[in-house]
Every structure is written in C-alpha cells, then in structure tokens.
Specification:
Length: about 140
C-alpha cells in the first residue's frame, strides 16, 4: 500500500480490495446502454476472483449481454477507525449458461433484497481491481 501525502488517501493492494469486496454484498453496477451509461444497485457475492450477481429480464441483462464491459463500485465506512474505503472492479460480464456452472452458482450465498424474479446469474470477470482508503473528516 502507498499513501498519497497530498490527499491522505491510501492506495490499496489488489488482495486488500478483494478482502473488502468479501465484506459487503451490495454494489453499484455501471453498464453501457446504447450511448448512455446506466447504474444499477446489485446484490453480489465473491466467487474466487470473480463477482456473481443475479438479474431478471430487462435493461441490465441486455446491457451485460451486448456490451459486456462493466464497472462495479462498493464503498464502506469503519466508524471506530473513522475511515472510509472504495473499491472499483472493471471487467467483462457474462451470463452463466452452462448447467453445471448454474448448479454450482446456485449454492453461493447470494441473497437479493428484492423479491422480483431474478432467474439469470451473471459473472463479472475482473480485468482491473483498484481501491482507496482515507480518513473521514468531521466525524
């Protein structure tokens, strides 16, 4: 890890980013829809060095099927240490379509906040994982 003394932000190592990703289950997913960017909240789970989420039919599924490049971002806050962190994952999304892989993916501890049907699994294969940690002022 290195600290930018100008901003006070610590640049996290990739392993640290994965540890933080594993502590959360909610993120924002950015996808390209035509010429526009859309951002969706998702529930996710870390599966090895990949991210898995579920979705139903609609814009999000169409976007990750057509323009497979996506970005995902999560944030966290540690009250006792008065520090916040942010992790960004950029990569390629793919629908999970192989039956054996679907059965394995169904065993992951992936829970949705919504009761809307989400029959499709999507795997995000990271190409870049970056993160920052910084002290929170005024708290």
């Amino acid at each position: 890890m290195s600290t930018d003394f100008r901003t006070g932000m610590t640049v996290l190592e990739e392993d640290d980013c994965w540890q933080l990703l594993d502590t959360s289950s909610v993120a924002r997913l950015a996808v390209l829809v035509g010429d526009d960017l859309e951002i969706f909240p998702i529930n996710y789970v870390v599966d090895g060095r990949a991210i898995v989420f579920r979705t139903g039919e609609g814009t999000k599924l169409a976007a990750v099927t057509i323009a497979r490049n996506v970005a995902m971002e999560i944030d966290g806050y540690h009250r006792a240490r008065r520090e916040a962190w942010s992790v960004v994952v950029k990569g390629t999304a793919e629908r999970v379509e192989d039956f054996d892989e679907i059965y394995q993916t169904e065993e992951l501890p992936l829970r949705s906040w919504s009761d809307h049907p989400k029959q499709w699994f999507v795997r995000l294969l990271p190409q870049q994982v970056t993160g920052r940690r910084f002290a929170v002022a005024g708290y």
